[in-house]
Task: structure prediction
Amino acid sequence: MGEHGFDLPPKATREVMDRREELADKAREALVQAGLPACRGTSQGGPGAHVQVDPLADGGVLVEWGTQEELATAAANLLESGVDPSNLPHAIRHYETVQTCMRDAVLQILTSAGFHVARADAHTYGSAVHVKGCNP
Result:
């Protein structure tokens, strides 16, 4: 148990993290070659594909799509104010459509480039793509 009375999830070894970093670089490069804006790091980097490495033992390489801040903020503000889930406002529906379309595009582009990818666990990673490996 940790010092605060609960167990923290185990982190990946340095060797695993090095392999993930290399895979993340290759995935970012494949997305850039396809013409998509892509960077390494969190969604704070602006619009485009954000390729990041999760340091947890069961984590991996993840690609998340970032929209312009105005689109994400409009949807978040509406959600915070409370909405009827059976009748979502246009801004939320549009944001969700963009996220779904771009996730599917990233999945298809990386698959075509020789990567092994899947939808990431939505509960943990939202609409991210999990990059599991690539052919040499």
